[in-house]
């Protein structure tokens, strides 16, 4: 008999808003049919059953700021030397079912070539995690806050080049990070809003006035809060303090345990409403790979003991993916397990307009991640109803 339905049984599941004990998730094709206590479900002959002891389920994780993994660098897609399929596969091994490849500043010609190549890759059927759009982190940034990005490729706001990037990516750009203190920043935000592209503030030294202007124009996101922006100051208001306190702004944080002190993570989670915090990996092509020499676009990085740096000693992304990062978030912020899981599931889904995923509810996409209790070891990943990772077969 061809079994059309799958039933996943775990000790509990995080929907993520509600924890259901002795849970069951029933799926058919690419959608969830029902979620609830296992006792309410019958073991029909036409149902394929996957039962896990000492395990829990959550919606598939969503990473909206990730430069690479598994040896693939999103900023070098144009080279043809690396495969996004490798990145997709390794993310699925970590419970990530959706990701947004992130590119950094590069010479104009290379950026356009790269966006064309990356947009074409997003059209392919990937083996693991789904790529849903492109995040362009730059090139309209403040050189003083360039971080690991190439200063030579950072430029003033160029509205014409913005249009060229949008065209080159065939409508697949979903978010652009910019510095609100730059000339024409407000006009940039207006164009992005017209194109339904998220305007995210970051890599910036912006003060109160410039930040408020950008927010009033429609900028509603802040790229990796605390990193690449002014320190908090008791008398000087900046992008950092406004992002923390303006209820219109959604903040993302790198949750690798290295970029931010635990108390700063806790501070942000106490300041922001629960649905306005997104956990990101900011990982590079070195994630899931051995220590060695790698790159983020034109910038060379060295990874030792999982620690990524440029030749100048600047932190350069991470090698930590969301399967471990969200537990750090929970530990640092003292948020509940459900609220922490929301930061890597329902919150990014809502922020990116992905209305079909991020929660375990009937009629939603069957994107499910199952982990071992205690160790948080990934056991099974289901993307759109298809098992794309099974620890038993690795």
How does this model look, in words?
The chain is α/β, with parallel strands linked by helices and about 400 residues long. It has 2 domains: about 5-60 and about 360-394, Urease, subunit C, domain 1, CATH 2.30.40.10; about 60-350, Alpha-Beta Barrel (TIM Barrel). It is built from 10 helices and 22 strands. The protein has helices at about 85-90, 110-120, 160-170, 185-195, 210-215, 240-245, 260-270, 320-335, 335-340, 345-350, and strands at about 5-15, 20-30, 30-35, 45-50, 55-60, 60-65, 70, 70-75, 95-105, 130, 135, 175-180, 200, 220, 250-255, 275-280, 290-295, 300-305, 305-310, 370, 380-385, 385-390. Strands 6, 9, 10, 11, 12, 13, 14, 15 and 16 form a 9-stranded parallel sheet that branches. Strands 1, 2, 3, 4, 5, 20, 21 and 22 form an 8-stranded mixed sheet that branches. It has a 3-stranded antiparallel sheet with strand order 17-18-19, with no helix packed on it. Strand 7 (about 70) and strand 8 form a beta hairpin. Helix 2 (about 110-120) packs parallel to helix 3 (about 160-170) and helix 7 (about 260-270) packs across helix 8. It is globular. The model has no long low-confidence stretch (mean pLDDT about 95).
